[in-house]
Amino acid sequence: METSPVDVMRPAARDSDRATRLLHRAREARMAGQRMPVQPRAEIGASWDRVLRSGIDPEQTTQSVLLELEEIEHRRRSSALGEIMPLLSDGLVSIADASQQIMVVTDVEGRVLWRQGNTGILRRADDICLAEGAAWSEEITGTNAIGTALASRAPVQVHSAEHFVRSLHGWTCAAAPVRDPRDGRLMGIVDISGPANTFHPTTLALVGSVARLAESEVRTRHLQAIDRLRSVAAPMLCRLGGRALAVDANGWLAAVAGMPPVDRLPLPKSVQPGRVWLPSLGMCRVEPLPGGWLVQVADGAMDTPPRRVVLDLSMPGSLTVNVVSPVGTWTQRLSPRHAELLYALARCPEGRTASELAEDIFGDPTRTVTVRAEISRLRRHLAEVLAHRPYRFGEGVEVEVIGPENPGDLLPRSKAPVVVAARDAS
Fold first, then answer.
1. For position 65, what pLDDT does the model report?
2. Cis omega (within 30 of 0) for bond into 390
3. pLDDT at position 220
4. Which end of the chain is more exposed for a tag (fewer CB within 10 A), N or C?
């Protein structure tokens, strides 16, 4: 009489040795194309089939080429999961540490962006390349909780010989996808991994619960951001007249005037300020707002608006950029790095390449990845006045820099060569 897959593939403590032996026998039979003594769970069997079709060698290592540190940082900043990492850590890391396991969070490609937990297990994870920047999709590492959760878009637990690659048989892992509650798109994977003897059937439920909690936090933050955008945009819409909307960067509605509301306005992948044709509205003028876009439907003529930027670096603890446009004026607080970048651009009206800015800010022209990432973040709020190729303030934009009373006090903590040179010249 055959053993059922539930009995074998979810080993209880009392018969874990027997279950592990059966797992190995089932896997070896499947690899050899023979009849298996027991059937794997449906999700594991489906994963084995996918991996076999991909041609992965079950005897290969799990080593992969790690992402560069700058690329990891760029992906962290670009991921909504970065904002909720404290919540994920609070929900899982202490439990993982106590149970001799680690928490791993990946992006939608299965690249590890964060890992935390038991120090000893982190060292052991390095041996199987479960490290920051490593690739854990099924196409690269075979059946594993991260890759299989990515492929199936569902929570999954993978134990011992359920892993396709033999070198992972000493491990157990449980992972769940985290989706963007606004549109259902996958944001990444949260995973708990550890030695096989740390297996517990409730780990999957725990990881799934924390993933749902993370999604709820994303929803809450989204609603708060929409409220902030509405508080800025509503007074503007009242003054404008005509048909207009304020939407966030993904097109979700914050405020509307002169037309029926919509839940979401479809936006082009790369929104740029100026005249834009939107299929649902026709010709529009798009202007940046803090946290989103102002969209005016072109019911009449639209003149090119005058624009002015005031970069206020007079107080080190309160660095700001002030943007003046026909529909209103708003101020954006700046990080020290963004203040350095805008200062460098203000000094060079003709523009700077990514390499030149890297030299200005870091004294290292090769750090272009970091420069591009930071400029991309700046342009979310300043796309109307910042141009690229090369990076510069746009044509017709009047730029004023307000420095400290004593020029030698300009950005006093900055080590950027462009700032240091300005201080030394005062």
1. 94
2. yes
3. 94
4. N
**pLDDT for the residue 331:** 82
Tell me if 246 sits within 8 A of 233, measured CB to CB.
yes
State the first-to-last Cα distance of the chain, in angstroms, to the nearest integer.
89
Question: What is the rounded distance in angstroms from the CA atom of residue 312 to the CA atom of residue 339?
Answer: 9
CA distance 207 to 215: 12
Instruction: Return d(Cα 48, Cα 117) in angstroms, integer.
Output: 29
Q: Answer yes or no: are the C-beta atoms of 176 and 169 closer than 8 Å.
A: no
Residue pair 8/26 in contact by the 8 Å Cβ criterion: yes
Structure-block tokens of residue 356: 């030149």
Rounded CA separation 208/149 (Å)? 11
Q: What is the rounded CA–CA span in Å between residue 93 and residue 382? A: 37
Q: Per-block average pLDDT, block size 10, for the chain (426 residues)?
A: 42 55 75 75 92 92 94 91 90 89 96 96 96 96 97 95 94 96 92 95 94 94 95 89 90 93 85 78 86 85 63 92 72 91 94 95 94 87 80 88 92 94 88
| Sheet with 156-159: strands ordered across | 112-117, 102-106, 186-195, 171-179, 156-159
- Residues with Cβ within 8 Å of 269's Cβ and at least 6 positions away in sequence, in order, are none
